[in-house]
Design brief:
363 residues, alpha/beta, Rossmann fold, 2 domains, seven-stranded parallel beta sheet, Glycosyltransferase
């Protein structure tokens, strides 16, 4: 007897640490199991998995890269015939978009992770995708495209000519039960933190430039790793900041470090919808960010949970102000994001999307 549940496959290149990986695996595990049969399909290796997946079927194709997994993906869809395939991250979305042409009865949904027209200005090009020559056309073949922010939705509409009826705005959910810190006073010296991979678009260099100009003592916790490690730490040395910085390549205790910090520093030139600043706000730590597309201006309410500035000089001025007169209330900071991005709110939006596209396709 055929189940009345909708069969959904969520697919990712890998389960290495990252925002897309965490959000997609969270959605896959937590959508309503009375309505959906959820499978998580990973192109990469099981040995690399950084997330513990429970209560759903998980399949690893054990391939070194997406380009090596195209036939395996095709074979999986052919054999299992899912009702819906949801993919994330550009190079995998390129593959699934063209696979969709072979499976007209299956609904294909893409979740993109950045404001692509802006990202192109900063993206590292040393390892271009095998499928980059096909990438510009991939959006034409999806039934729906999930956008994490208004900036992303407008970018797809204006710069990629994707009609708005194909675009769906769903912000990232808060995936953990964060405890709001009780401490109202700042540390001595004041503690800053950034959680971001070491890539050009993350803007570490302008944060470091600003910190080199402040006239007070501080400590800066830098969590992340990536291809620009040598460049970033050369700049740290040049600015004589090494003694003020603690570097943590990877940790499962991000919440702890966020709660111990006084201010989150966001240097990005573009984002999709930054999980790290939502999580910082959830524990009660406000954010100082450079103005950039990708949901930052949706998340940050000036003087409630942080501030947004336009350049390095303004960043320095705000740092000086925060150090001299810190007046953020952790409970207010947390409340500014807790309801808007709660898992209950965001999961309901995903479930509504899946139900609507399925019934439209099958009625």
């Amino acid at each position: 007897m055929k189940s009345d549940k909708i069969n959904i496959t969520f697919t990712l290149p890998n389960l290495l640490p990252g925002g897309a990986e965490r959000v997609m695996s969270y959605i896959a595990q937590n959508i309503d199991s009375t309505k959906f049969n959820s499978t998580l399909l990973i192109v990469g290796y099981s040995k690399d998995a950084s997330y513990n997946i429970k209560n759903i079927n998980v399949i690893f194709l054990e391939k070194p890269r997406v380009s090596k997994g195209v036939f395996a993906l095709f074979k999986y869809i052919l054999n299992t015939k899912p009702d819906i395939v949801v993919s994330a991250i550009s190079h995998l979305n390129t593959v699934t978009s063209y696979l969709s042409l072979f499976f007209p009865k299956t609904i294909f949904i893409a979740r993109e992770v950045n404001v692509l027209s802006v990202l192109a200005n900063y993206e590292n090009q040393r390892n271009p995708s095998t499928f980059s020559f096909l990438g510009d056309k991939r959006f034409n073949f999806f039934d729906k495209i999930i956008c994490q922010s208004n900036d992303m939705l407008e970018d797809f509409n204006k710069n990629f000519n994707i009609k708005k009826n194909k675009l769906v705005l769903i912000n990232n959910p808060i995936t953990d039960n964060f405890k709001v810190k009780e401490r109202n006073k700042i540390n001595t010296p004041i503690n800053f933190i950034t959680v971001a991979r070491f890539d050009q678009e993350k803007g570490h260099h302008r944060i470091l430039e600003a910190l080199s100009k402040v006239d007070f003592d501080f400590h800066y916790t830098l969590i992340g790793k990536g291809i620009l490690y040598d460049e970033i730490f050369a700049q740290i040395k040049d600015f004589n900041l090494k003694s003020k910085i603690t570097h943590i390549p990877f940790t499962t205790k991000v919440e702890k470090y966020l709660a111990e910090s006084d201010l989150y520093l966001q240097g990005s030139y573009t984002e999709g919808f930054p999980n790290s600043i939502i999580e910082s706000c959830m524990v009660g730590t406000p954010v100082l960010a450079f103005d950039a597309p990708g949901g930052i201006n949706e998340i940050i309410f000036p003087d409630i949970n942080g501030n947004i500035v336009s350049n390095v000089n303004e960043f320095v001025q705000k740092l000086e102000t925060f150090n001299a007169n810190y007046n953020f209330n952790p409970k207010d900071v947390s409340a500014s994001v807790s309801t808007r991005y709660s898992s209950k709110t965001i999961l309901a939006k995903y479930e509504d999307l899946f139900m609507n596209v399925y019934h439209k396709k099958n009625n």
